[in-house]
Amino acid sequence: MSVIDWSVLILTLVVIVVYGIYKSRGTQNIQGYLLGNQSLPWYHVCLSVMATQASAITFLSAPGLAYSSGMSFVQFYLGLPLAMIVLCITFVPIFHRLKVYTAYEYLEQRFDLKTRALTAFLFLIQRGLSTGITIYAPSIILSTILDINTTYTTLFIGSLVIFYTVYGGTKAVSYTQMLQMSIIFCGLFAAGIMVVHLLPGDIGFGRAISIAGKMGRTNAIDLKFDLDNPYTVWTGLIGGFFLQLSYFGTDQSQVGRYLSGASVSQSRLGLLMNGLVKIPMQFLILLIGVLVFTFYQYNRPPIFFNSFELNKLENSKYGPELNKIKADFNQAFEDKQVVVNQMNAALDQDDQVAISRQRDALKLADDKEKAIKLQVTDLMEKNDKQANTKDNNYIFLSFVTQYLPKGLVGLLIAIIFLASMGSTASALNSLASTTVIDIYKRLIKKDASDSQYLRASRLATVFWGVVCIIMALFASKIGNLLEAVNILGSYIYGTILGVFLVAFYLRHVNGRAVFYAALLAELAVIVIGRMELVAYLWLNVIGCLLVVLFSIVFQTMMRAKSKHITTSVKQ
Amino acid sequence: MEQDKQIPSKPDQDLPPFVKTWKQFYRLLIGWLIFLIIAFYIFTVYFQ
Q1: Tell me, what is an example of a GO biological process annotation in this record (chain A) (predicted)?
Q2: d(Cα A220, Cα A311) in Å, to the nearest integer?
Q3: Contacts made by residues B15-22, CB under 8 angstroms, sequence distance 24+
């Protein structure tokens, strides 16, 4: 990176952190620290929930996914607007009316302490683990640029977030997120324009998409009903709806964001605006990945985008073998370029027969390239069993650092940092809220002073920050980070959502029934997930429905038993 | 400056912008979702 890039990166980070600290100064009570005094307008809520969900993983993995397998991932978000509507009708008014700090507080009022503790515990496990991955994602950027171990970069990012989150709490999180999202939108827009600008002169925006489309990268919608395919319209609408509903409705990292809204209306408006903007935003991020894909049809891509792993292989005893594979790869690229040019000519002439023929030829060329890349990853595994053989997360990063102009590289890398910092800060804040409100205040020290709870919240933030950093250090062995986070969430969110839906809609079910129903459902989800019987998004639906079903069955059984005892006593 | 942006906490009496009721806003969002699915479908078919 050049001096200009470093300056842009450091300046952006410093401005964001100082701004967050400045805006959150004077936070002296637990209400202000955990809920921002419930004073924020809708646009704060909207940008804050978006920044919490859009982690650095979104900006690293999503373009990589589009590059390697197309845009089908956009369907993952189709259930989000529907989930926002249900949240606005049910969750938001209830949480605001009861003036809760965490979503799990409500469950004690509705059921009992053990149900509140169970859901809080599940949340702490899920969020604690996935935040580790959220911190790890951008740390690989610095590691690639500086060619140092990810351990040091993970420690740097984690410490930076802990610093301002501990100081300013929810307000610092929310104010920094608003600025972060503004910079992110501008940076991504600039990146999109630059990719098109870097394409050959005769390839415009539409033609770039056309060429990628002929190679199967514009598959935004798949109408087939296939339980094994994680990205179809139906999986997105049904599975995605349940996942988003449980994420926004029961995950404290999101509940905490919209509870900071000044009123029910401000929280609602923030969530609904998120429903309007989120899918187009995700589509545009994937589209950048597609454009990068077309760019690499005219510029030879590296045989493997993770330069750290590639260098390791080059310097091993397998170096000569790698060189042979590289020669094959270069030849395959030259051959493919001929076909790409022929496709471009066929598109110019709108010759449908030639287009169809070139499409088949391009598919063959693409498959050949993938097969050669597979040889490289096989060799990497042979050389080092612990090698990271997935390079999806490095594709966009590699393009940015190699081809974008000075200054913009620094800005885009800053964006990835900011995105990670935003979602990590929310997560730490919510982990601290749940630990203090649902565990410490409820189970350990019920009558402490406000300042003691504030101190406990700050300590809890530091504690979870350290835990997440440790988890991040283990994240390097996971392939696609974005999927890993979603899979982990799918194991737990469905069960928690089921508990909340029973609480809202099945008034006759009591705490004992729902508690055992949740335990049994979670066990079933783990078994189904481990056996890979369905695509992971469906685990949300299954977990949720099983909790509802088991709750009804247990409640009926308990009622029958109670009637039987009453009758026996009377006799 | 900070105080200017903060809105005092108040009960649910605000109406949504652009439309008259929250129900209409929900319908608008569902319409937007349907539009996006159709637009993405056309995008998929057109470019493949």
Answers
A1: sodium ion transport
A2: 35
A3: B15/A265, B16/A265, B16/A268, B16/A269, B16/A272, B17/A269, B22/A88, B22/A268
- pLDDT tens figures, A317-350: 888 888 899 999 999 888 888 888 888 888 888 8
Give A493→chain B minimum CA distance, Å. 23
Model confidence pTM above 0.80: yes
For testing contact with chain B, the best of A47, A272, A278, A362 (most B CBs within 10 A)? A272
Q: How many Å apart are CA A80 and CA A276, to the nearest integer?
A: 9
Q: What is the dihedral of CA A524, A529, A534, A540, to 10 degrees?
A: 70
Q: Which helix (DSSP H) or strand (DSSP E) does residue A435 occupy?
A: none
- Asked if B47 and A209 come within 8 Å (Cβ–Cβ), the reply is yes
Q: Quote the pLDDT of residue A477.
A: 61
Inter-chain residue contact A262 with B6, CB threshold 8 Å: yes
Strands (E), A234-319: none
Residues A3-20+40-296+400-562, CATH architecture: Up-down Bundle (1.20)
DSSP A231: S
DSSP A438: I
- Does residue A357 carry a pLDDT above 70? yes
Rounded to whole angstroms, the Cα distance separating A186 from A175 reads 17
Give the number of other CB atoms < 10 A from CB of residue B24.
Answer: 13
Task: Identify the pLDDT of residue A531.
Answer: 84
CA distance A519 to A517: 6
